[in-house]
Amino acid sequence: MSDRITQLRNDFDGELKAVSADAGANALRDRWVGRKSGVITAEMKTLGKLSPEDRRVAGQRLNELKDYVEAEIEKLQADFAAKREAEQLVKERIDVTLPGRRIEAGHLHPITLLRQKIEDIFVSMGYEIEDGPEIETNFYNFDALNIPANHPARSPQDTFYINDHLALRSQTSTMQIHAMQKRRPPLRIAAPGRVFRRDTPDATHNPMFYQVEGLLIDRGITLGDLKGTVEEFVRRLFGPETRTRFRPSYFPFVEPGAEIDYTCFKCNGAGCRICKGSGWIEMGGSGMVHPNVLRAVGIDPEEFTGFAFGLGLDRLCALMYGLDDIRLLYENDVRFLEQFR
Length: 341
Ligand code: FA5
Prior knowledge:
The chain is α+β, with helices and mostly antiparallel strands and 341 residues long.
């Protein structure tokens, strides 16, 4: 029996050496000390055939062998676990000296940047910034602005109607009426916002675009004040060299009315691709507020006069950044927008 137990231990040692993974260690334990069919368990069962003295000695040695087998397998499994952990540490090692990954922060849209710049200029000139509804009644869209019943601007071909009485505003001039209803003159407001027209989209037209309205009402305001204010605004936006010119034009809500041009910021008036060789760029409309508009909001045109102007932000933005199509501003292509961070 003694030789047999020595042989068993040698066999176990041989098998132990051949195990190379956790699963192998578990199988080895089942094979040697498994309760049902383990080699040592089976050997224990044969002890009954021995004499009492041999049984005691052999039993003791088999128990020692069992303890040995269990301890060796446990040691092997602990080795495997340590090896696994060491490998994992190498795999997951972090080089803390590497530079971090840059987090992409959001940024403002070019139209928003321009709008903020324009708002800052108006505030520095003593204007208050106003906001107002994008859906308006016919009173704000047309009647109060002295737009006659047969005017083409009222036609469904030009304006987005919601029903007979409501439409999307087609110009920020509607804000003049809200501002004058809210407060009494003297008043100075600038109102940037979105406007909507049934224009066919092309490089310089979009059905939704931005305007900013300026309005000043006080006693004794003249066309000279309008010109001085617009000239100062344009100089603050484009630099001290920029000049403006006024071309007579018609808008129902002003009298007289004028279109505003300014010297091209690119060529300074010499003529270039941006201003199509003319040296001038059109910025928007303006004029002295029509007496009928003042009357519509209960202001006496004999006592107060004022001027208003409305500028298109999209074309301004396109010109400033050298864009050849204003629709780029609304396509939400991040490759385009990322250039403005
Ligand atoms: C007006 O909208 C007047 N409310 C301006 C005004 C205000 C006159 C106060 C007098 C007193 P106009 O329709 O010309 O005017 O538009 C002004 C500017 O809006 C244009 O110069 C242009 O820059 C811009 N604009 C007009 N239509 C579009 C469009 N479809 N897409 C992009 N910009 C446009």
